[in-house]
Amino acid sequence: MIQPRLLGVAALAVTVSLSAPQVLAQQAGDPGLGVRLNGIEEQLRYLTGEVERLTHQVRELERAAGAPAAQGAVQPRAPQPAAQAPAPSSVATATGGQPALGAPPQNLGQLRLDDQGKPLDITGLSQALPAGTPGSGTLVPMAAAPTGPSPRDVYDEAYGYILRGDYAQAESGFRTFLAQYPGDELVPNAKFWIGESFFQRGDYQNAARTFLDTSQAHPDAAKAPESMLKLGLSLAALQQRDPACSTLNELMRRYPRAEPSVLDQAQVERRTLGC
């Protein structure tokens, strides 16, 4: 199954990332240390990419199957009055229950949201019709549900191009995502991948601009430490040693608890630049 395999890959990635400092401590002074650390970093990067790729596959399979990931789970049901039709549930059931009329498509197993991204409130639906009207406990007709792709769908499509190495198409896809959903929680990630698409194509100037914007506009995002690392690498590639050193030093100061792989690569690059 894909999910156990995904957990196994994630556990292996954590094991590799935790072993990097031990290698550094045991082999201090070894002239081949930089090569070994680069090898560890490449292996960790591969494993991290594998985790994201498998996560993407799981999400695609769930959407294709049209059923929640956890099979057999039983959702609690509130007792219903004998004289009324059962009130619709606000949570999708594990047996394929249909979403409430008018709710946009959501990830399986999550609370349904309204068209503004807020949890769907069904507590006042019984007052939608005059008191005593037959069927007043049921949903009243609402506007048709949106038929377009969700923000996650647009993001996943763009990320699929990253996995395939089509960085120009990935940049276009993530720019479309930013234009359509400028307030989505995935905006920092989308900006990071645009910068990565430039970096992988050797356009270090645009990569540096994008990573700088991402790290400044979203300093608390999960991708902020890696954005600063890639900013330093881009500046180093542009022969801007002093700004690159300043960026890497600031990364170490601002994010001392960042992912070990990010901190280890920053340390290696600082030694390479003679910071």
How is this fold's topology laid out?
Elements: H1 2-26, H2 33-65, H3 151-164, H4 167-180, H5 187-200, H6 204-217, H7 224-237, H8 241-254, H9 260-273
Mean pLDDT reading: 72
Number of helices: 9
Low confidence ranges: 1-28, 67-76, 81-112, 118-138
**Residues in helix, %:** 55-70%
Query: Major β-sheet, in short?
Result: none
Strand content: under 5%
Straight-line distance between termini: 47 Å
H/E element string?
HHHHHHHHH
Shape: globular
Which structural class do you get from the secondary structure elements?
A: mainly alpha
Radius of gyration: 24 Å
Q: Based on DSSP secondary structure assignment, what is the total number of beta strands?
A: 0
Can you describe this structure?
With 275 residues, the chain is mainly α. The protein has a domain at 1-24 and 33-67 and 107-112. 57% of the residues lie in helices and 0% in strands. It contains 9 helices and no strands. It has helices at residues 2-26, 33-65, 151-164, 167-180, 187-200, 204-217, 224-237, 241-254, 260-273. The chain starts with a helix and ends with a helix. The model is unreliable at 1-28, 67-76, 81-112 and 118-138 (pLDDT under 50).
Kindly list the characteristics that best describe this protein.
275 residues; mainly alpha; 9 helices; 57% helix; globular; disordered N terminus
In brief, what are we looking at here?
The chain has 275 residues and is mostly helical. Helices cover 57% and strands 0% of the residues.
